[in-house]
Structures are given as C-alpha cells and as structure tokens.
Design brief:
By secondary structure, the chain is of the alpha+beta class. It contains four helices and five strands. The chain has a five-stranded antiparallel beta sheet with strand order 2-3-1-4-5, with helices on one face.
C-alpha cells in the first residue's frame, strides 16, 4: 500500500521502487479574475512591468521543475515536458492551463497544479499595483493519464 506514513505513523516519502515506469501526464488549470481594464492592459501589452503572460509562463515552468522543493514528501521528478498556456477568458479573467509529462514511477499531478498556481501568483504579483482585488480561483486537476490508478478526467461543467 502506498502511504505517507511509516509503520510508526511518522510522515515519510512513499517508496515507489516497485512501481512500473509508465508514460504519465497531468493537466491542471487556474483562473485569475481581475478588473476588465487590468485584463485589457495585459492583452494589449501595455503593462509597465512587461509581458505578463511571458513572465507567468516561465514562472510556471520553473515552479513545476521545483515542485519537490515546495511540497513536502513530493518526489523529485525528471520532467520531459512542461507547457503553460495563458489566455484571456471573457472580459475579466485569465485562464492558465499547465501540462506536465514524464516517463516515471509516480505521477505529475502536483507539478501541473504547482505550475498553474505559480503562474497565477505571478500574474497577481505583476498586476497588484493596479488591481489588488484580483482573485485566484479554480486551481484544479483537469486530467491525468498513466500509472496504476489509470485515467482521470474532470467532468464537463
């Protein structure tokens, strides 16, 4: 059984030694709600701090690669691909979709969720001077494939 507890009930990293190496992929999303004028400034490239989407994309990729440094008991992974896509959604939100892949013994859900979260936090950081009321929401796993637990996909809403 995979657990973060050892025989004495202490937290430890799950031993994945016996697990098979499989292709694994996870997709996560986050949204940042903001004032319409804030989104317009980002989309039109008029933000005084530069290209918000480019900086958030890089931050998300870097965060995925450092997930094991941020989340206790998370395995350090050799990711083979990290993609972070950002797009305007309606007149007042940015949607972030992070996709992580590897061939390994454990999944990449935490890496995808971390990438989406850090990209959202980066948008907040870059835009907080003009819009302190932004809201980061809907950070969630959309899909995962590979591994013993099989395929998961969030139901359409």
């Amino acid at each position: 059984m995979l657990t973060h507890l050892d025989s004495q009930g202490r937290a430890n990293m799950v031993d994945v030694t016996e697990k098979a190496v499989t292709e694994r992929e996870a997709v996560a999303e986050a949204r940042v709600r903001m004032l319409p004028q804030t989104l317009q400034m980002i989309v039109e490239g008029e933000h005084p701090k530069g290209d918000v989407f480019a900086v958030a994309r890089i931050a998300g990729i870097q965060a995925a690669k450092k997930t094991s440094d941020l989340i206790p008991l998370c395995h350090p992974l050799m990711l083979t691909s990290v993609k972070v896509e950002l797009s305007a959604e309606g007149s007042d939100a940015v949607r972030i979709v992070a996709r992580c892949k590897l061939a390994g013994q454990t999944g990449v859900e935490m890496e995808a969720l971390t990438a989406a979260s850090v990209a959202a936090l980066t948008i907040y950081d870059m835009c907080k001077a003009v819009d302190k009321g932004m809201v980061i929401e809907q950070v969630r796993l959309l899909e995962k494939t590979g591994g013993k637990s099989g395929h998961y996909r969030v139901e359409a809403q």
